[in-house]
Design brief:
It is a single chain. The protein has 287 residues and is of the alpha+beta class. Helix content is 25%, strand content 25%. The strands form 4 sheets. A 7-stranded mixed β-sheet has the order 1-2-3-13-5-15-4, covered by helices on one side. The protein has a 3-stranded antiparallel β-sheet with strand order 12-6-14. It has a 3-stranded antiparallel β-sheet with strand order 8-7-11. It is globular, with a radius of gyration of 19 Å. The structure holds N-oxalylglycine (OGA) and manganese (II) ion (MN).
């Protein structure tokens, strides 16, 4: 073992030691990183200045990187890096209702990234450049532990059910106002179904749900949505949550296969929050 994983809270998440800046990411180290992520759900690397090139390298240790569709949010030298920030190109902080702010506020709902895709992404990395003095934390919830703790009756009820995930739905339900999508745009995001309970290669099971979920397949719409709310409320109880309080130079990686996350509110029109985001593509369908 080259790396050390120091538990964060509730047996969930770990701070990473031994990954100094110059460390070559050879196969042994990559294996430890990948299994460390699966084991811990969330990894924190603290107090290291990470260049954009190194960030891309670290991302590639976990898999292929996605290039997100908005060209103006990409890093000029590294298109794999997405600028996740409430600071506009002109240097001013956003207004509450402008699209950039509404998009960011959308992440205040519990979700797992790109679950509306047939093959959702594997993990996401955020590297903090500037963080607000208060607010703007990120919370993560452990969906292995949440599944395990479900009352047997509830577990039996959902075990063979599938959820319909839809970007069109989650966008329409964003807490801020977003321009409606054209039918042409909508057709790029057909709804997909994934099992509510996913089984991982090691046999463990976790809940797979969140804000992109529209409804339970084959169930009365309202009854299904009530069931989703019930399960989500239990799954995101404090005992399953790690709350990350950001410091500049923190790098956090989370496993989208087995965790939910959400941004906590902050004074988005006053305080600067600037992050570099890297998304690692998924490889396997959700089973
Ligand atoms: C994301 C996300 C939360 C945050 O980048 O996918 O949900 O705290 N971010 O910025
Ligand atoms: Mn997210």
């Amino acid at each position: 073992m080259i790396l050390e994983f120091e538990p964060l809270s509730n047996n969930f998440g770990a701070r990473l030691h031994g990954l100094d800046d110059g460390r070559v990411l050879d196969d042994g180290l990559i294996d430890e990183l990948r299994s460390g992520l699966i084991e811990n759900g969330v990894l924190l690397l603290r107090g290291q200045e990470i260049s954009p090139a190194r960030l891309v390298q670290l991302g590639r240790a976990f898999g292929e990187l996605e290039i997100l569709p908005e060209p103006d949010k990409r890093h000029p030298d590294h298109p794999e890096i997405f600028d996740l920030t409430n600071v506009r190109k002109d240097g001013a902080v956003v207004d509450f209702e402008e699209p950039q702010a509404v998009f960011l506020r959308g992440t205040e709902r519990w979700h797992t990234d790109s679950s509306f895709r047939e093959i959702p992404c594997l993990c996401t990395m955020l590297y903090a450049l500037e963080v607000p003095e208060s607010g703007g934390e990120t919370q993560f919830a452990n969906m292995y532990a949440a599944f395990k703790s479900l009352p047997t009756s509830l577990r039996n009820e959902i075990e063979d059910k599938k959820l319909v995930h839809s970007y069109v739905y989650s966008r329409a339900n964003n807490p801020g106002r977003m321009d409606p999508m054209s039918p042409e745009e909508e057709s790029k995001y057909p709804p997909v179904t994934h099992p509510w309970v996913r089984t991982h290669p090691d046999g463990r099971k976790s809940l797979y749900m969140g804000a992109h979920v529209s409804h339970v397949e084959g169930m009365d719409l309202n009854e299904g949505r009530a069931l989703i709310q019930e399960v989500l409320a239990g799954a995101t109880e404090e005992r399953f949550v790690y709350q990350h309080v950001w410091q500049a130079n923190d790098l956090v990686v989370w496993d989208n296969r087995s965790t939910l996350h959400r941004l906590r509110p902050y004074e988005i029109t006053e305080r600067r929050r600037v992050m570099h985001r890297v998304t690692v593509a998924g490889v396997d369908p959700v089973v």
